[in-house]
Amino acid sequence: MTGGLSRRAVVGSTLALAACDRTIEAQAATLELPPLRSAAPFPVGTCVQAFQLEDRALSPLIAAQVSQLTAEWEMKMEYIVQDDGSLRFDAPDQIAAFARTHGMRFFGHTLVWYAQEPPAFKRLDTGRIAFDAAYRNYILAVVGRYRGQAVGWDVVNEAIDDEGDGWRDCLWSQRLGPLEHMVLAFQHAREADPEAVLFLNDYNLENRPKKRVAFLKLVEALLKAGAPLGGLGTQTHVAADLPAGRLSAAITDLASFGLPIHLSEMDVSLRRAKGLGHDKAKLEAGQGRVYAEAAEAFSRLPAQQRFAFTHWGLRDPDSWLNYKDPGDAPLLFDRRGRPKAAAAAWIGGLR
Ligand code: G3I
Fold it and tell me: Which of 123, 221, 251, 318 is 20 to 30 A from 310 in CA distance terms?
């Protein structure tokens, strides 16, 4: 990779040099790391919003660092479905075009989510036929538009309730059935695109083992029902105090079906790491440890199960975690797009 030096040697020496200079800013300025996409033996992604692709600082960082893009919100119903029922695709088309231009994979997120129930669907009469047709037409229109471009889709997002007691109740389950609405979504997506890998995606699968059990039972139910489920997404929104081993255990469990795994939305919050107090050095050390464990655990999957590793953003200020509570630093790059020690730790965890 670098004059034959191993990845770990490069990272180790980089960190040693950086540690010589105490200030975080100086450290960030001295970290010389390979692009994430070059360091990893699998696709590396980030989430994006269309406007960011025109940002003269961020756009080149995205192009240099990753090989896959996920729309952060502009391929969800909240953006696409207008109140009159019409669909808008300007932003998703822009993201798809950027991916195509830069030779990147494009990942669709997300088709059916309990958190999004647009008025255009809610006001449909309770008759099953009309609703079923609108549901199928939506999925055919969205997935069909990006056929041959999108490498995969989060077909159903966050179907398991927070405690892991069962499946969420939502407009889709009420109108089309608790399991049936999910099976239908996978079938409609497959009808629209015979090639795309179709995912079930959820969060807290590492933090809450009970939720992971419920998620895996849903996987079994979907496969038994004949849903063309082709991959499992584990979002991995975690904090710097995540106990060692939790992430590895989750990835091992999720891989037990032999399906491709998408580590789909990783960030490692410092502000939510209640177990580490406010000591910045401890928080950053914990963050690096968690990123390294995720990289190592994902690297150790069989190659055919390493679908992609997606960071939910690249620069700290762009993170959704800062929308309401500015000041978190959950990602691999600082506000100026310079790699942090967390980036060195993630690369150091790769195998
Ligand atoms: O940019 C518009 C702005 O022009 C407008 O004035 C404003 C008010 O409507 O909305 C702004 O868009 C917001 C967008 O984030 C960009 O900030 C949307 O309202 C808001 O809904 C959207 O939130 C996204 C959220 O999902 C809901 O879609 C977050 O960016 C995104 O990070 C978050 O991502 C989710 C994953 O999809 C699923 N897993 C959890 C993850 C974090 O919540």
Answer: 221
Number of residues that this document lists for the chain = 351
Residue 156: other Cβ atoms inside 10 A: 29
- ∠ at Cα 261 (260, 267), nearest 5°? 160
Terminal-to-terminal C-alpha distance of the chain = 13
**Global pTM?**
0.94
User: Up-side HSE of residue 115: CA atoms within 13 Å toward CB?
Assistant: 12
Q: What is the distance, to the nearest Å, from the Cα of residue 213 to the centroid of all Cα atoms in its chain?
A: 20
CA distances from 30 to 67, 200, 292, 341 (A): 25, 40, 20, 10
| Nearest CA among 249, 251, 283, 245 for reference residue 264 | 251
- Say how far residue 275 (Cα) sits from the centre of its chain: 25
Rounded Cα distance, 124 and 341, in Å: 51
**How far, in Å, CA of 307 to CA of 70, rounded?**
13
77 C-alpha to center of ligand 1: Å? 11
Is residue 293 annotated as part of the catalytic site, yes or no?
no
SS3 content of the chain, % helix, strand, coil (to 5): 45, 20, 35
Architecture of domain 49-349: Alpha-Beta Barrel (3.20)
The ranges assigned to domains in the chain are 49-349
Q: Indicate if 72 belongs to the active site.
A: no
Pick the catalytic residue: 72, 74, 206, 265?
265
- Of the candidates 72, 74, 158, 206, the residue annotated as catalytic is 158
Query: Which value, to the nearest 10 degrees, does the dihedral of the CA atoms of residues 15, 17, 21, 25 take?
Result: -60
Measured CA to CA, the distance from residue 291 to residue 281 in angstroms comes to 15
What is the per-residue pLDDT across 2-39, written as a single tens digit (0 to 9) for each?
Answer: 334 455 555 555 555 444 444 455 555 567 899 999 99
In angstroms, rounded to a whole number, what is the distance separating the alpha carbons of residues 111 and 107?
12
Residue 234: other Cβ atoms inside 10 A:
26
pLDDT for 15? 52
